[in-house]
Amino acid sequence: MSTISAQKPGSDGRRLRLNVDLRQFGILGALAIIVILFQVLTGGKLLLPANINNLIQQNAYVLILAVGMVIVIIAGHIDLSVGSVVALVGAVTAIAMVQWELPWWGAVVVGLAVGALVGVWQGFWIAFVGIPAFIVTLAGMLLFRGLTLVLLTGGTINALPAGFVAIGKGTLPQSFGTMLGGHDVVTLIAAIVVVIAFALSQFRSRRKQLALDLPVEPGMLLVAKIVVTTVAVLFFAWLLSAHRGLPIILIILAALILLYTFVLKRTVFGRHVYAMGGNLFAAQMSGVKTRWVNFFIFVNMGVLAALAGIVTAARAGGAVASAGNSYELDAIAAAFIGGAAVTGGVGTVIGAVIGAMIMGVLNMGLSILSVDSAWQQVIKGLVLLLAVAFDVVSKRRGPRM
After folding, report:
1. Do 359 and 32 touch, CB atoms closer than 8 A?
2. Is 33 exposed, middle or buried (0-12, 13-18, 19+ CB in 10 A)?
3. What's 198's DSSP letter?
4. What is the pLDDT of residue 20?
5. 244-262: average pLDDT
6. How far does Cα 255 stand from its chain's mean position?
7. How far apart are CA 35 and CA 38, in angstroms?
8. Residue 310: which region, alpha, beta or left (left: phi > 0; alpha: psi -120 to 50)?
9. What b/e string do you get for 359-393 counting C-beta neighbours within 10 Å, with b at 16 or more?
10. Which of the ends of the chain has fewer CB neighbours closer than 10 A, N or C?
11. Strands 319-320 and 15-21, how do they pair?
12. Quick one: pLDDT at residue 246?
């Protein structure tokens, strides 16, 4: 990962070290360029309020999977089974509601439990038996897809409860009404809260780093980042608020991003994940319980894949045996585009989310332009290749910078 470092004396005699992450800014810049490009090419259709809502709901599954997948990749593994787990959990959840007559929330609990059991199964073989994750999850891809076909002998299960469907397609009630031509007040308030919290967290983090004499980014750059983020969040919130209201799935996604960003950055588990991906032998010699860390990485991935399966079934209004096809590829691509290193040890939740949004904007923009699905696959493949090539080249040049 490329960085720029410099030093200058501070007012209190300390040296202020500047540390700028070019990779992260590059990903954000790429997303902005792609959005602007498709906004122009589609004649302004990309950023219509309905399309913003659809962008969030249609890509919720890959955002959820990318959060789990980036943790797997940071630790030096890969998971090829998540698409099949999505299908299996969707089937089990639908059966629980329609055939077992459980309330929708009870079926959701069952679905998440199934995902956890899948993670326990795969984590056991990877962590304690020592079979490579690639082989275990490849077997899981076949196994869980087969179980889905066994469960859904009729092909589909439809007519799911409205409360369940709302998870994937619903919005919060417009409790405070609308303003200025029909914009939802709840959505706008939520956006304001987000940007205030983001600004406070950035200033607090900088203050702690300065107190510990750690590298920090320049003050002007920090302010610029906060301003750009604020403008972007408020702009998209303004567009989204003109549709129906705040999507329920967006609240779920925001909670996941905050939770897993905290886990990776602020917990012992997160530090151990990075340590294992950076140098497994050194992590073992430092006393990291690598087997248990690996085990819980895949349990976590199973739960998140289950959540993605629940969201997918809710949005579709039913369970189908073909659900989740190629979802694992979307999640892996999002993580790598978002800055995860192919060798492990590098990656962030925010980066994976940005990578997923790049994939989502590409899908929607190309669809609006009526580009053939075959060419869409070609374009997304090239984007993935370029992202990984940039990571490899930047690492080679890093020591000379």
Report:
1. no
2. exposed
3. H
4. 44
5. 91
6. 11
7. 5
8. alpha
9. bbbbbbbbebeeeeeeebeeebeebbeebbebbee
10. C
11. unpaired
12. 85
Angle at 84 between CA 81 and CA 88, to 5 degrees: 130
pLDDT band at 373 (very low <50, low <70, confident <90, very high): confident
Q: What is the pTM of this model?
A: 0.88
| Number of neighbours of residue 146 by Cβ within 10 angstroms | 12
Helix axis angle for 82-98 and 104-123, nearest 10°, is 150
- Residue 62 near residue 315 (C-beta atoms within 8 A): no
Residue ranges and CATH numbers for the domains of the chain are 3-170+247-400 (1.10.3470)
Report the C-alpha gap between 251 and 191 in whole angstroms: 11
Query: Tokens 């997304």 belong to which residue?
Result: 380
Residue whose entry in the numeric block shows the structure tokens 């549709």:
243
Q: Which range, of 46-60, 190-204, 257-271, 375-389, averages the lowest pLDDT?
A: 375-389
3-state class percentages of the chain: helix first, strand second, coil last, to nearest 5 = 70, 5, 20
Percentage above 90 pLDDT, the chain: 46
Q: Give the chain's mean pLDDT.
A: 86
> Which amino acid is it at 120?
V
Please report which confidence band the pLDDT of residue 9 belongs to, taking 50, 70 and 90 as the band edges. very low
Close Cβ partners of 341 (under 8 Å, ≥ 6 residues apart): 1, 73, 277, 347, 391, 395
Interhelix angle 349-368/373-397, nearest 10 degrees: 150
Question: What single-letter DSSP state applies at residue 77?
Answer: -
Task: Determine the angle formed by the axes of helices 49-58 and 349-368, rounding to 10 degrees.
Answer: 120
Which residue bears the tokens 């992590």? 283
Confidence band for 382, pLDDT divided at 50, 70 and 90: confident
State the Cα–Cα distance between residues 341 and 233, nearest whole angstrom: 28
Q: Which two tokens stand for residue 63?
A: 């955002």
- Give the model confidence (pLDDT) of 234-251 as tens digits: 988 888 888 877 899 999
Provide the 3-class DSSP secondary structure of residue 130: coil
